[in-house]
Design goal:
The chain folds into 3 domains: 82 residues, Uridine Diphospho-n-acetylenolpyruvylglucosamine Reductase, domain 2, CATH 3.30.43; 130 residues, Uridine Diphospho-n-acetylenolpyruvylglucosamine Reductase, domain 3, CATH 3.30.465.10; 81 residues, Uridine Diphospho-n-acetylenolpyruvylglucosamine Reductase, domain 1 (Alpha-Beta Complex), CATH 3.90.78.10. It is 30% helix and 27% strand. The protein is built from 8 helices and 19 strands. A hairpin with a 3-residue loop joins strand 11 and strand 12. The chain starts with a helix and ends with a strand.
Length: 305
Amino acid sequence: MDPATLSTLRSTLGDRLQENAPLSGYTSARIGGPADALLLVRSADDLAQVAQLLWEKEVPFLLLGGGSNVLVSDRGVRGAVIINRARKVTVDAQSEPPCITAESGATLNDLARRAVRSGLSGMEWAATVPGSLGGAVYGNAGAFDGDIAASLVSTELIHRQAGRQTWPAERLEYNYRTSLLKRQHLPVVILSAKLVLEHGDKAAIQARMDLFSDQRRLTQPPGASLGSMFKNPPGDFAGRLIEAAGLKGQRVGNAEISPVHANFFINHGQTRAADIQALIELAQRTVFEKYGVKLELEIELIGEY
């Protein structure tokens, strides 16, 4: 970021602005170089105002919620990074159908637990999924045969040119782990979303959530990771292909293809993004050579590569 622009942001935002701020503390993989400028927001209105300011100043920016499913470059991010802590949640269990409306920084885990406390079903799959609602809406996050597309009614967003808008779920044109927003990189920021749920037996809902949590603990590795690295190819599983290619336990530096689940790459401490990237390229190359399958990233590469 040029000094003049940074000076303008500094005078406008004051102590809210952090400069040359490491991003490793804001990603689930604990990896990431510095951002030129970093801002933390705590409400949807604040998020909209900050986004509009950065657009007006022609400052490129990245939005991070839970920081999962992204690999931030060791060289960091030029421009600004907004850390989304807008987490207001409203549960309406009396409406028909019942629904939850939440700001985009709310965590999926929190939404799932609020739902079960109100005897509402439909978010059990999300109980142990890392990340925020905004990221889930953007990328159609899912697990255990559930995803955000199945529950989303609408999302409020701010568009660089058109301002604040409410989009029905259909407009997002969801597919497996993707949306119109993700495919076309539209100049929008997700502010909040409304999810429709179903009434159910609280004990049964809790039992399903506990089952999914147990399954995740048994099949997915602990430790710092990005989440699922690759999308599952049609009719197969990325983890199975990587394991069959003999790559479980393969390491580059302190990065490892997990011996527990080969579609998870683990940071064992002081891991560089370059190490993870080397394992990504190794997995893609080896699986294609052995099985003719091109593994497509589920995560996004962020920053200077």
